[in-house]
Give the backbone structure.
Amino acid sequence: MQISPPKGRNEIDRDRAPASAAPSERLGARIAMDDFGAGYSSLSSLQSFPFDKVKIDRSFTRGLEQSRKSDAIVTAVTDLCKGLEMCATAEGVETESQFEALRRRGCQEAQGYLFSRPCEAGEIPALIAHLGIYVALPEAAE
C-alpha cells in the first residue's frame, strides 16, 4: 500500500509529521511525495516528513532527451533519492525510449501508459499476468 499526502498542501506540519506517519508505517504502507518538482513539493518536505518514495512529475518525463533541463532535473532527483535512501518513481512514462532514458539515469520505478492505462482493482491480476510480473503476497495471519 502506498499513501501520498494530499496535493495542494503548501506546507507539511514539521512537528506532527513523524507522529502522523507512524500508523501508516506500522501497517507497512509506503509514503510517497507525488508530482515532485511541480506545485507545492519542496526539498524541505523531504527533510521533515518520512517519505519512502519520490514520484517525479510527468512534465519532466515528457521532456527527457528533448530538453537538457528535464534531463538534468531527472538525474538530480534520482541522485537525491539515492542519497536519501528513497525510491525514485517516474510518472507519465509513455514510450520505450523514455523508459530506457530513465533506466540509464538510475530511476528505480516507472509508471504510465507504456505499462497500462488506469484500471479497476479487479483487473490487476490479469494486468500482472500480461506484464509477466510475479507477485508473492504475504500469507494471511492465522
Strands lie at 2-3, 30-36, 53-56, 87-90, 109-110. The longest strand covers residues 30-36. The CA atoms of residues 9 and 40 lie 7 Å apart.
